[in-house]
Structure formats: C-alpha cells, structure tokens
Amino acid sequence: MPRFWLMKSEPDAYSWDDLVTEGEGTWDGVRNYRARNNLQAMEVGDRAFFYHSNIGKEIVGVVEISAAGLPDPTDDTGKWAAVKVRPVEKLARPVTLAEIKADPALADIELLKLSRLSVAEVRPEEWAYIMKLASSPKETR
C-alpha cells in the first residue's frame, strides 16, 4: 500500500512549475536526519504533497515518487538520501498553512507538529481530507 508524504520547497529555489517543466526532479539537499529517514522510507509509487514554503506557505500539487533509495548527489559523505519525483496533478486550489492550522481535523499532522521538517509523513486520513479541501471552494467550508 502506498504511503503519503509532504515535501517542502522554497518556490524561489525550486517551485511546482519548475518540476512540471522538468517532468521529473531529484529531491536532494535535505540535511535533517528525520527528513532523511522519511526519504529513505519512500518507495516508488508513494505520493507526496508539494508544499511551497517561505513564500506562499501552501500545498500546491501532488507528486509521485518515481525513483527511491538514491544517494544524495549533493552529498560527499554518503549519509544523505534523495528520491526522484514526477508531477501528478496541480491541486484545484492550494491549501494554505493557515487553513491547516485552523482546522481541528488536521491538528496532529506532522506539518504542524514538526514544522521545520522538510519531508514529513502524512497519514492516509489526512491525505484524503486535504485532497477534499483542495477540491472544494474555500468559502464553503
């Protein structure tokens, strides 16, 4: 059964549009042990939210892990991990960090519990809930 994740990127460094243009990107440069462990746990076919951090602070799309278990090409020590991702879909509308913080149904999401973590796990029920939010107009919730 595929697992779900959230991967943060600063859009001025690497955005959703950059990934779409490339068609497939390498998720590397992560220098946090918990985030590295999450990268190492990923398998081909897992899905992840693409989250714009710093600017926007919102989930903007869904990616699929297309290659897993890679060494980080930006690392000389051999202790950091990477994966390759492909864009699956841009969300009908972004789901903002403010929205997530304000929603009691998402109170335990790792994005909030470990807010500095750049690669976080998302539980299946959280994934489904966020996908529902993204497909509904903001005003009606």
UniProtKB/TrEMBL annotation:
EVE domain location, by residue?
3-133
Q: Which Pfam families match?
A: EVE (PF01878)
- CDD domains membership: EVE
**Which InterPro entries is this protein grouped with?**
5hmC_binding, EVE_domain, PUA-like_sf, THYN1-like_EVE
Any transmembrane segments, and where?
A: none
Name of the molecule in the record: EVE domain protein
